[in-house]
Amino acid sequence: MQITRIEINGKARHRTVERKAGSDQIRIDSIVRNPKRGQEAWKIWELPGTVSDEELFEVAMKVQSRTDGYVGTNSDVHGYFGEMRRFQD
After folding, report:
1. What is the model's pTM?
2. Does position 82 have pLDDT exceeding 70, yes or no?
3. Number of domains making up the chain
């Protein structure tokens, strides 16, 4: 079994993490439905499948914050990080 895409919904925010079959890139799309002034409505990360845990955790912190609307605790971030790790080589 291979997971190629997951969608994560938070309060007024949506994220998609995907890696197409045969691709060496992980793509993370982050959409904020009603962005605050100066906030990016759409953010995309494209990471190699060989991304390190440290780099992926950094992205997971940003994804968690954008999805939940607040800077979370370490355990909040680990929930996102665990799902995103499914796409690493």
Report:
1. 0.86
2. yes
3. 1
